[in-house]
Design goal:
- This protein has helices spanning about 15-20, 35, 40-45, 65-70, 115-125, 160-165, 170-175, and strands at about 50-55, 80-85, 85-90, 95-100, 105-115, 130-140, 145-155.
- By secondary structure, the chain is α+β, with helices and mostly antiparallel strands.
Length: about 180
């Protein structure tokens, strides 16, 4: 008989997992690296923390637009900033942020989103042609902090399809998620 990770004999795998309070995906295999098996830790790392800076590069760089979208009582204070390693491409009339060469820069502005409600309003405004992504924001206004690892909205499809102006299956699938049966 084989041994389980905790030294128990393999008489009934499902009962052993039930007794340990585990589901099959949570069982650690001796040969699997920790990052694949430490499920509880990974889930906690993605808990949203607010306030958080968001980098904007299109219509949301206008304070009055941002004020209207997230229902602020006054125009927001925004910081002049840039991203490095990105570029802008056009999707119709709309600029899309895409990953590019390490030295390329995209100018824009950053704003401190105060809570999940504001973040949800921004995501709704951006539509599902964009997806939220982590980024390193470099501030160019001589204030502190000089940089911050925060968030932005990037193109949800394939950058090369966008640049070549061809059908983007990745974007189509992203937009149709939940609509196809």
């Amino acid at each position: 008989m084989s041994q389980h990770p905790r030294g128990q004999e393999d008489t009934d795998s499902s009962s052993w997992m039930r007794n340990e309070g585990l589901i099959p995906d949570e069982v650690k295999l001796p040969s699997a690296p920790d990052y694949l098996t430490n499920i509880k830790r990974d889930l906690n790392e993605f808990t949203p923390k607010y306030p958080v800076y968001y980098f904007f590069y299109g219509t949301l760089t206008a304070p009055v637009t941002l004020q209207r979208i997230i229902d602020l009582p006054e125009e927001p204070k925004m910081r002049k900033a840039k991203l490095i390693g990105y570029a802008l491409a056009k999707w119709g009339d709309y600029p899309m942020l895409i990953n590019r060469e390490p030295g390329q820069e995209v100018p824009g502005y950053a704003y401190i989103v105060q809570n999940e409600e504001e973040a949800q309003k921004l995501a709704y405004y951006e539509t599902n042609a964009y997806k939220e992504a982590h980024c390193l924001i470099y501030f160019v206004d001589n204030e502190e902090p000089a940089e911050a690892s925060e968030k932005t909205f990037v193109y949800a499809g394939e950058a090369n399809a966008l640049l070549e102006q061809r059908f983007d299956r990745k974007l189509w699938l992203h937009q149709m998620a939940g609509k196809l049966v």
